[in-house]
């Protein structure tokens, strides 16, 4: 049985991996690892790098067969802040795949908090009056009126990673 290490202790991210990868096939462990980027990634590029950093560090730290990193960030498009989400999967042969998930426009008040240097999780707590948004529904859950929570959003990314990885294992690999 292969061991999959998820580089976080955030329940919403761990639940996303558990929803996609069967525990009959994989032993899933989680551990907090540094992303190697800032606590609040401020671009798609930085968020993607954070996901890759977490995947590689989780792989190494847990001596796993596969490492998965999931990273939330924000990115500015045409002067407006958007939520962005990335994931990466790394294996012991040096294969790395990455995928992006949902992007959503953030309300102007939330963008103002980001501009002031605050982390999105803290801004969302103040904005909603709810606690632990980052570990529960996420900004995506709040802004989609509960239709797509953070775990469901990340599970789509994990499906993209697992599917790409399977395809590459069958058809030859390339690196991101
Ligand atoms: O425990 P880890 O895995 O670090 O999870 P995190 O939610 O704290 O950290 P991320 O690196 O995924 O996100 C970077 C920052 O952006 C915030 N963030 C990202 N996506 C979010 C979302 O959908 N809802 C609330 N906060 C979010 C998060 O709280 C962090 O402050």
TrEMBL record:
Domain Non-canonical purine NTP phosphatase/PRRC1 intervals: 7-158
User: Any idea which UniProt keywords this protein has?
Assistant: Hydrolase, Magnesium, Manganese, Metal-binding, Nucleotide metabolism, Nucleotide-binding
The entry's substrate-binding residues are 63-64
Instruction: Write down the required cofactor(s).
Output: Mg(2+); Mn(2+)
Matching Pfam families: NTPase_I-T (PF01931)
**Which residues hold Mg(2+)?**
63
**Reaction catalysis annotation:** XTP + H2O = XDP + phosphate + H(+); ITP + H2O = IDP + phosphate + H(+)
So what EC number does this one have? 3.6.1.73
Q: Which GO terms describe its molecular function?
A: ITPase activity; metal ion binding; nucleotide binding
Taxonomic superkingdom = Bacteria
Q: Is Amino-acid biosynthesis tagged as a keyword?
A: no
The transmembrane residues are none
Question: What are the GO BP annotations of this UniProt entry?
Answer: nucleotide metabolic process
Task: State how the cofactor is bound.
Answer: Binds 1 divalent metal cation per subunit; can use either Mg(2+) or Mn(2+).
What top-tier enzyme class does this entry carry? hydrolase
Could you confirm whether the keyword Cell membrane appears in this record?
Answer: no
Function according to Swiss-Prot or TrEMBL? Phosphatase that hydrolyzes non-canonical purine nucleotides such as XTP and ITP to their respective diphosphate derivatives. Probably excludes non-canonical purines from DNA/RNA precursor pool, thus preventing their incorporation into DNA/RNA and avoiding chromosomal lesions.
The UniProt subunit note reads as follows: Homodimer.
Similarity comment: family membership: Belongs to the YjjX NTPase family.
| Name assigned to this protein | Probable inosine/xanthosine triphosphatase
Q: Which organism is it from?
A: Geobacillus kaustophilus (strain HTA426)
The organism's taxonomic lineage, starting at the top: Bacteria, Bacillati, Bacillota, Bacilli, Bacillales
């Amino acid at each position: 049985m292969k061991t999959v290490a998820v580089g976080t202790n955030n329940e919403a991210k761990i639940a996303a991996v558990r929803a996609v990868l069967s525990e009959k096939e994989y032993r899933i462990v989680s551990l907090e690892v540094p992303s190697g980027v800032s606590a609040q990634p401020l671009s798609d590029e930085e968020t993607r790098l954070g996901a890759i950093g977490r995947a590689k560090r989780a792989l190494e730290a847990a001596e796993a067969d596969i490492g998965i990193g999931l990273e939330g960030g924000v990115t500015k498009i045409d002067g407006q802040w958007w939520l962005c989400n990335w994931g990466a999967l790394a294996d012991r042969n040096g294969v790395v795949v990455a995928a992006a998930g949902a992007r959503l426009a953030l309300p102007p008040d939330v963008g103002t908090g980001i501009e002031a240097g605050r982390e999105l999780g803290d801004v969302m707590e103040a904005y909603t009056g709810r606690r632990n948004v980052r570990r529960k529904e996420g900004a995506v859950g709040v802004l989609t009126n509960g239709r797509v929570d953070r775990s469901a959003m990340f599970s789509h990314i994990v499906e993209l990673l697992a599917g790409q990885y399977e395809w590459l294992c069958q058809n030859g690999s390339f690196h991101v």
